[in-house]
Amino acid sequence: MTRRRIIAGNWKMNTDRDEAVALAKAVADATAAFAADVDVVVIPPATLIAPVVDALGDSHVAVGAQNMHPEVRGAYTGELAGPMLTSVGCGYVVCGHSERRQLFGETSEFVGAKVAAAHRFGLIPILCVGETLEEREAGQTEAIVADQLKRGIDGLSKEQLAETIVAYEPVWAIGTGRTATPEQAQAVHAHLRGILKQRAGAEVAEAVRIQYGGSVNPSNAAELLGAPDIDGALVGGASLKAETFASIVGA
Ligand code: 13P
After folding, report:
1. Are 187 and 229 in contact (CB under 8 A)?
2. What is the pTM of this model?
3. 146 occurs within a structural domain
4. How far is the CA of 207 from the centre of ligand 1 (A)?
5. CATH code, domain carrying 70
6. Rounded Cα–Cα distance for residues 230 and 97 (Å)
7. Quick one: which atom of ligand 1 is closest to the CA of 237?
8. Cα 11 to averaged position of ligand 1 atoms, centre (Å)
9. Residues 23-60: pLDDT tens digits?
10. Is 60 a catalytic residue?
């Protein structure tokens, strides 16, 4: 089965309105030539989702959110619900980024609730998993990501699972310039796909797209994306410049 590649740019807490609109337009222009082959997603800060959606018009570039709350509405000061995102044209949502887990105490159970809610509200979740350096050095990588994945997809139907995107982001590779080698990443991706197969069978496991994230840049992208189980990239720093992001999409 050939899985369609998906490259997403997580802008994190960067850009103001003018910068976001300009960057989104530049990304649409610079990646237009690859639109037939690759899904391209930009993930701006929440207040800039609507202006970015407007700026992109009917271009091939989709828009995602960096986080959401699993509940539909209520007394959750500071949070955003799925329907608030879909109502402004947002199509994807990142769930359980390691920065959310580490800095804001998100548990894998809470992340799983977000993933399930995303599907309920018509958003495609990008479920992030990844080990810290300490965990890798202690030989716990496979166990950690397996646990994060299983809890993250808990309760999903096979159809929902097939449409879930998983992102393997080793914490030690995020924003550090230190990237996993293609062999290291491929090993974890194959392990994750094996878990999906146990859980939902080969057909579903083969359908799920697994992105790699962590210091992806134009010089390492082609090699990483050449690995059989790496189906795309979740790009941080290098997504803030249209040319560098586009050259990753091109890779
Ligand atoms: P960097 O590409 O800046 O390492 O960030 C990766 C990331 O966290 C994407 O979600």
Report:
1. no
2. 0.98
3. yes
4. 24
5. 3.20.20.70
6. 18
7. 3
8. 9
9. 999 999 999 999 999 999 999 999 999 999 999 999 99
10. no
